[in-house]
Design goal:
Radius of gyration: 13 Å
Number of strands: 11
Order of helices and strands: EEEEEEEEEEE
Number of helices: 0
Strand content: over 45%
Largest sheet: 7 strands, mixed
Shape: globular
Structural class: mainly beta
């Protein structure tokens, strides 16, 4: 069973930054695309960012485009989500997940356990 472990969540002020990390165990990153999702209180889980195996192609939700950046380190089997210009509405539990494609936000194969991000003064 492939295992995904998120870290880096915490409390940030509006306008601040956080970097989330996703460690992948049990597989190499070339087998999947890695995506970040989030679930805010009272809302459905939504796709945030996705990255290709090479890291050359990325996909972002409209709400985070220009503020968030996804990257991959295949040697370390790590995927990162750099979150800048944070807004209170970014508050959510963030999950990394494996997908076959970045063309859409469905067809998730494995989920991490999530890490809490809170943006508040």
């Amino acid at each position: 069973q492939l295992q995904l472990v998120e870290s880096g969540g915490g409390l940030a002020q509006p306008g601040g930054s956080l970097r989330l990390s996703c460690a992948v165990a049990g597989s190499t990153l070339d087998a999947y695309r890695i995506a970040w999702f989030r679930q805010a209180p009272g809302k459905e889980r939504e796709g945030v960012a996705c990255i290709s195996r090479s890291g050359g192609l990325t996909k972002y939700a409209d709400s985070v485009t220009g503020r968030f950046s996804i990257s991959v380190d295949n040697a370390k089997k790590m995927v990162y989500l750099q979150m800048n210009s944070l807004k209170p509405e970014d508050t959510a539990v963030y999950y990394c997940a494996t997908k076959d494609y970045c063309l859409n936000w469905v067809s998730v194969r494995y989920w991490g356990q999530g890490t809490q991000v809170t943006v508040s003064s």
